[in-house]
């Protein structure tokens, strides 16, 4: 008995020591600290093993480094544009965008997101349209095809894509395919066999160097980018798999948002891909002008910034840009996201906007693909409803779009969900669009989607079953670490 008491006392002291260690390491994030402390006390010792795996921080060093003169050129461009914004000398094709100069400045300073104004944008909300366009552009490629996707499936769409890439590689076109090791964990190595045989290359992002143990499991490359010849770029929510064509019976129709971009904004996607590739692959790409072609003709007149974020940076750039947009709203905020697990700053910004008379509308999927995140999402809706935010549940299939539209003037479409993981732990990229015509079209799409939604009310939310409330509360408590 005395031995058991001694062992219990030792475990208790060890847990207290480990809890204090976590409090010291996580002292800048209260919600994350409390979540880990609870794990430590309810799962003694093993909880700290989980912390070492899931709580490990990417070291605060610059993971990404451009080669050659690219970094210097980008820094010079950013400094020049910041100076132009301070002096009110930066030109805009859409004069309404002058009221958002402070947001452009912030993105320049925090993310080196160069503002470009010669872009054209095509919006896709359905998978077949997006992949038909992408495969057509792949077929027309002359020099290179660069892809990065979080999820890649070895199914009909996945095989169709890899066959098209292999055919171009056999023609001498440079093909590089980057995928996330965790998101595509079920992808067999044979999937790339035809591509490798044709001269193409693939690489996994943050792969496990030790079998069955990946100490970077919590950090995922969630980007979905495609760059063809430096002239055409794709960014948005669609991954590679049959479910994104609406062929999965569980999800039904897949509702997403993806952009095809032409213009200088594509070069920012290119730079991000090359940095991702150089971080993940054993061989580094030497930059040259063929990756960054001079745009002799103006593709369009849309202003845009491509903002990247990740766990290696000091700021949560995409989240900060979202908050800046929300506080800039005067009339409407239209937000679509599959997962809604915000921190206090985002919750506060949405509630303040609604209480200030802004029409705040949030659209979420009515069916879950990840139950834990689904429960955590619903735990936040009561506060929003009480503050005057309108909440809609999309019933026509699964909603996976990551879209924010402010006053029908500016918008964001990209890869980041509105949750803690996307903003803090994942490597993401969003397009911030400064163009009333494009923003108005995205708002029109939102309003069309709302016809297929059930609107939540304070009363219907309060009437949900007790077990749902319990699962939501537990999920919300643990969401900062999972």
Please supply descriptive tags for the structure shown above.
two-stranded parallel ribbon; 482 residues; 19 strands; 15-stranded mixed sheet; globular; alpha/beta
Largest sheet: 15 strands, mixed
Question: Whole-number radius of gyration?
Answer: 23 Å
Strand order of the largest sheet: 4-3-2-5-6-8-1-9-18-16-15-10-12-13-19
How widely separated are the two ends? Answer: 38 Å
Average the pLDDT over all residues and give the rounded result: 87
Q: Please state roughly what percent of the residues sit in beta strands, choosing from under 5%, 5-15%, 15-25%, 25-35%, 35-45% or over 45%.
A: 15-25%
Number of helices: 17
The total beta strand count reads 19
Helix residue percentage: 40-55%
| Unreliable stretches covering 5 or more consecutive residues | none
Alpha-beta classification: alpha/beta
Using the alpha-carbon principal axes, give the shape: globular
